[in-house]
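Recall the central idea of this unit: under ordinary conditions, the amino acid sequence of a chain determines the structure it adopts. In this exercise we apply that idea directly, starting from the sequence alone.
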Amino acid sequence: MSVENLILAPFGGAKTWEMPELPSFNKLPAHATLTPFPSASGALRIEREESVWFQSLSGTWDFQILPRPEAATTDAVKGGTWSSIAVPGNWTMQGFGHPHYTNVQMPFVCLPPTVPYENPTGIYRRTFDLPEAWQQRRVVLHFGGCEGVLYVYVNGVFIGMNKDARTPAEFDITAQARHGSTNEVMAVVVQWSDASFIEDQDHWWQAGLQREVFVYSTGTSYVQDFTARGVWDAETGKAALNLKCSVAWGEREPADCSIEAQLFNADGASVLEHPIRIDSRAEGRPPYRYHVLEATHAVPSPHLWSAESPYLYTLVVTLKIGDSEESLSCRVGFRSVQIRDRHLLINGKVVMIKGVNRHDHDDTRGKAVTREVMETDIRLMKQFNVNAVRTSHYPNDPYWLDLCDRYGLYVIDEANIEAHAYYDDVCRDTRYTHAFVERVRNMVERDKNHPSIIFWSLGNESGYGPNHDAAAGWIRSAEPTRPLHYEAAVREVLGGGEHASDVICPMYASIKDIVQWAKTTNDFRPLILCEYSHAMGNSNGSLSDYWDAFETYDGLQGGFIWEWIDHGIRKLDANGNPYWAYGGDFGDVPNDDNFCTDGLVWPDRTPHPGMYEFKKLIQPVRVEAVDLAQGRVRIVNKQDFTSLAWLTGEWELTVDGDIVQTGKLPALDIGPGEFRDVTFVEMAAATGEAFLNFRFYQAEDTLWAKQGHLVAWEQIALPVQKAAPAEQPPTRVIASEDTGKIVLTVGEVHATFDKASGTLTAYGKTGQNHIQQGPRLNVWRAGTDNDGIKLQNLDRKVLGKWLKLGLDRVQHQLKSIKLIQAENQLPVVEIVQQASGRAKWDDFQHTQRYQLLPSGQLAVENTVQIGSEINDIPRVGVSLTLDHGLEQLAWFGRGPWENYADRKASAMVGRYQSTVSAEYVPYVMPQEHGHKTDVRWLALTGGDHHGVKVEGAPLIEFSASHFTDADLYAAKHTYDLTPRADVILNLDLGQRGLGTASCGPDTLERYCLMEPQYTFSYRLELI
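Accordingly, the structure predicted from this sequence is:
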């Protein structure tokens, strides 16, 4: 085959998709996101579709796929079969190939920069017409982002190529563009390349044109780029607009060229008394095909931008050449960012980072995320009090940054660099130096005008080497207004790496380690965790402990939870029911299983229960007890820049779960960082367990939520005034025993025990029994992802230890059952069971002592002795199987969402109602869920309102489900689960905390079950 017949001809005999030294070819210089308009008034609105010089090419394209680049010959393409495909979109989500998930490992076995010979190559094609008004003007073709190497052809002519998948590639197609006849653009995309080794980013590998495509037009002389900085000095209070414009022209410099710029406030009014005007010859430099024109203009007392108050101005820049003009615009925010004295300062204030990491992900479109989905993301983040986002691990779509500017989020903008599989190699490979620097430059030049960006990040998990320092050096010279962030530069000792990182930014550091750092460091930089609290499945244990450390120790300024969203992909099971797929579900080998489903929200953006814990911990207001005897509390504004006047507050007094008094809080005109004491002088006296509950709502509509949206809540326990116990009428409890059973009876209520099995078999009135299987020791739970990812090697996880101990298959062996009747004492049925999953019957010994009380309640005392070879177990409790009709659930304890020993700060004590079915939490990988702590009582009833009540003595924990632990542990997807008709009721002394060990520290020891013996009690009661 002749080289001339190949579309992707070799360059100097080498394959261009295996040449890291060639990260792009003939691509225009990176620049800010700008759209030219014929007038300043049009530019002021920044609606690009309104410009006559903008034309979208997104939509339906022709497409065909070939097995390898070498198969892309002119004859093959001409003779191939074309299909329709959506752009933006990934072909791997549209029936061509499939997504592939890996975390650290590469999806193929090759050494950088080589890739597999079989290398899917997609051919995109569409036609377009150019407006006649564009004649004699420059025409630019824009690709917002393409996964895979992008080769561009216009009207059969090769234009250029690009390998950076997450930033734009623009090409000047003026010479190839046809006016008056149809144009054809063809994009050839090669899936695997040398660039794949630095885009190994713990996400689905996809392919194709995943961001928008458009063309736009400029004059032959044009503003190539401009930088606009709203500068505010925290010490002097002075502000200025710094403007730098790069003006380019065609064959010769125009004789009369000037820049005029005006700043407009949020209402559209001019801010500057006279527009900034710069003449192209003012610099006095020799002609060089472009001029850099700079000006600084004082702006008195501007509104400052912050995540709490994201005030934006609009800058309109107009290039005037003779009688013609062309205008561009961008938003401007005035703010300052500093690192000083171990603090990150925004506008001179120490700001706590309440952040999340965010990938571009859609469960049906892959990485082609629509503007509507982005808006859903940011509204949810703001509704849950998030104030920061890290664009892991690449620059997100530029519209996302527009939203962050507008809604108010602090942003770490991260370069499209991750070489996880070759962590310590690629960062030192000089063949990749140009790629590192270019990717950082692409990000900075595109995003420099966004006030939301407070850090530039050099990428993620790529080791630390000269290539990073080269990229850091470029930023420090070209755009030094933001500090640098790079985790690997400081990872070993929580220090060092000053050239590449202005912040100590570890991932998954333990609370102990960050507190020790805060107590002992001499480093001038703050510590902000770039990743922590790995939100995989039922997770985020000890989030409250992290936040206690952040708010206690100087120099700790929060961090970014990993991560925002589960990266499940929507599929249908054999019955047509939807579920979310993960690694391996597409035949993608090798893969990293469900490690991609590690978000605070499900793929459809429904919040996990852990999201509410985060919302509570980072809420903008706190209520503290001051003098409860006098009814005095303190309302604290935790914000840095704004008053609490945007909120309204309500309070309620509950006693034993009943609301007995309510009221409204006074106006919350409390300044940032300030507080106000409030006294409840007419609060009702409470006999019983009393709580003072506070809720704070939005006073008016905002961009992200309607008036009345719940922003924050607080609960304060009041001193308990115990009521005298009610006298019980004397009632005789009768005990009887035969060869097969023991029966306790009081009035119409009886409790029956089977002597052969040693279990409670019936509890109720004559002809009534809700118990199908009585309480038996339960020390197992369906492992959470933090216990151990059950599809992976579990040797180093606690789940692996539990499985070796047989805790998932515990059997029970009756040791003794006896009726104890002492004079003047209620009769007791004592049952002793031994239990083991490995036939070592001293692993567990469970003693239950049952007493039927004169009231008809059945009191149960439990003692669990644990063998010397066993500790740190999943749970200590009992499991019962109840009648399937008991679907209605009520409880007095923490709720309404599931909560655990180390994740319950957000769950207020109260009375709640639900159903057993509704208690199922559909984690992508089925696992333990639905647990409730600090429960005073719970009740399960049927349609006739009869059922069973359980009272803790004094407290108990529980879950109610239509699935057993074995059902959940066996399931790999939600479609593997079929609800049982019965109700599985777990009554627990406690469960092991959740921790975050799927990627991070394990459960803190104080939340583990480590003792050799436990006792707990509860009472059953008929309803």
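The two ends are 85 Å apart (CA to CA).
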